[in-house]
């Protein structure tokens, strides 16, 4: 038996890059027009968060919450768990995070701060823009359009979008709480994608997670 230190991360993967790509393609194909509706909703979420105001803030939080719940069920639980046992545990976490975002939308007082103010808020807006532009990575990587990963459909851009909105939460403790599950997923997904050789996607996730973390940390420093 080989010594434990001789193992590489790829030795623990239960699926190949092509199997993962085919899973995404089949999932997207099954959604039809919803794929493009979801892309529009991700952009709308970013606009709601950027414009601010009570109604826009609550709409952004509610959309992210619904997106997390839907992604947890439709992809993580129904598809990804069949090739990756970790997805079966991630799905309930996405449902929990989604419910928390919806609760914040319903009950938090003046939930989001302005995205037009300090550096931390602008950094957060960059995370939201990255999440909205995530589908373009398929074209950059030379993949067909059916391989695009859209927020509210796939977990990685959905988690990024959730991180961006969570970092705009006015109450620091609530912001950290809402960001915890999406941040944990982005770390896991970054390592998985790097192991699969998906460099563009893994670097984009790492950049988005880093910006969100910097935004959250800078708020605590400024306090």
From TrEMBL:
The chain crosses the membrane at residues 31-50, 57-76, 88-107, 119-140, 193-217. It comes from the Bacteria. Keywords: Membrane, Transmembrane, Transmembrane helix. This is MFS transporter permease.
